[in-house]
Amino acid sequence: MVKVVLVGAYPWRMTRLRLVADSLKKHGFNVNILSPKVNVRFKPKFISAFLRYSSYMMQELLIDSDVIHVFNIPDIYGLPPLLKMKTRNVKFIYDVRSPWGDELLDLGYKQLHDAAELIERILTVKASAVTTANSILGKRARRWGADRVYVIPNYPSREFKPSVDPEEFKCRLGLDNCRILLFVGSFTNIECALDVVTIFPNVIREEPDAMLIMVGDGVLMPEIRRRIVEMGVRDRVILTGWIPHSEVANWISIADLCLAPRREEGEASKFFAPESVLKVNEYLALGKPVVVTPVGGFKNAPSPPFIIASFSKLGEAIIEALRKPIKVENPLKYTWTISEEKLIKVYDEVLGEE
């Protein structure tokens, strides 16, 4: 039985990694999800980061496997497999969901960009196969010299469904007469969480029954809480904090409209595309329309199910979408079944090498 080790910074929170694990097990692979033994966080941050990264990389070097499958960010975790490819004939699959170097730029770590991108380029060229979550990242991998590139969309499982009846859940929350805007994600500048809160008062001035639900957490949570109070919309916004992924479908199921904006000027936004953003495909799989900005692959995304608006016109687009609801056709096409077929093809071809 082929032994596969799956590597990711936070494996317990990485839905794509879990879906890959389930698919490989179903097809007879012996799968081991490598859990970090050291997960310390303290100041100065670079010391705690060094301890986390070095410890996890040592775990990678010591564990026995035929295939090591690394899910990117931080991509430094792809370096140990390069050594194992030479010394132990291990196959290395490099999974890219987002551009690490460009995300560091957007987060303000300009000094780290060049080193991060160099690591990305080395892994892209040296890996047994590169899997990407969208075709834009796939084209970049080919441009950088990858021999084998496969696009595996970031689609949710067919089992991604609410565990509670949506009407009952909505009633339990006291939201029977509300139209619900939903944001799911990290409360960071990259995902525009604070911007969503800032434009919301404009929405409720026009649509007084609108309610904003934000599922997630992050560094901007304190500022978001403060801004909600300042703007006088505390009774119109629900902040759930982090919740188990198994509960996310319940919140999506009661939404009238879902939000997934990115700033057009962001470096990483160029690689943002419908098939690579799990939460976007979760929205669609449950039949919910999505308001997005024209970045990356979303510039030419079909409308419906997407409502595409420039960042400066986001509030107006939300109001218009609430007034004229659209329907998502064929939501079942946005499921992991398609991705699983492509994943198994990758393994068959990589393991079939002489």
In short:
The protein has helices spanning 15-26, 45-62, 79-88, 100-106, 113-126, 135-143, 166-172, 193-206, 221-230, 245-253, 278-285, 314-323, 336-351, and strands spanning 3-7, 30-33, 67-71, 91-96, 129-132, 149-151, 179-186, 210-217, 237-241, 257-260, 290-292, 306-308. By secondary structure, it is of the alpha/beta class.
CATH topology of the largest domain: Rossmann fold
Q: Quick check: average pLDDT?
A: 94
| Helical fraction | 40-55%
Largest sheet: 6 strands, parallel
Number of strands: 12
Which strands sit side by side, in order, in the main sheet? 2-1-3-4-5-6
- Distance between the amino and carboxyl termini: 18 Å
What is the domain tally?
2
What would your notes on this structure say?
This protein has 354 residues and is α/β, with parallel strands linked by helices. It has two domains: 3-155 and 336-351, Glycogen Phosphorylase B (Rossmann fold), CATH 3.40.50.2000; 166-333, 3-Layer(aba) Sandwich (Rossmann fold), CATH 3.40.50. It contains 13 helices and twelve strands. It has a six-stranded parallel β-sheet, sandwiched between helices. A six-stranded parallel β-sheet has the order 9-8-7-10-11-12, sandwiched between helices. Strand 1, helix 1 (15-26) and strand 2 (30-33) form a beta-alpha-beta unit. Helix 1 packs across helix 13 (336-351) and helix 2 runs parallel beside helix 3. 41% of the residues are buried. The model has no long low-confidence stretch (mean pLDDT 94).
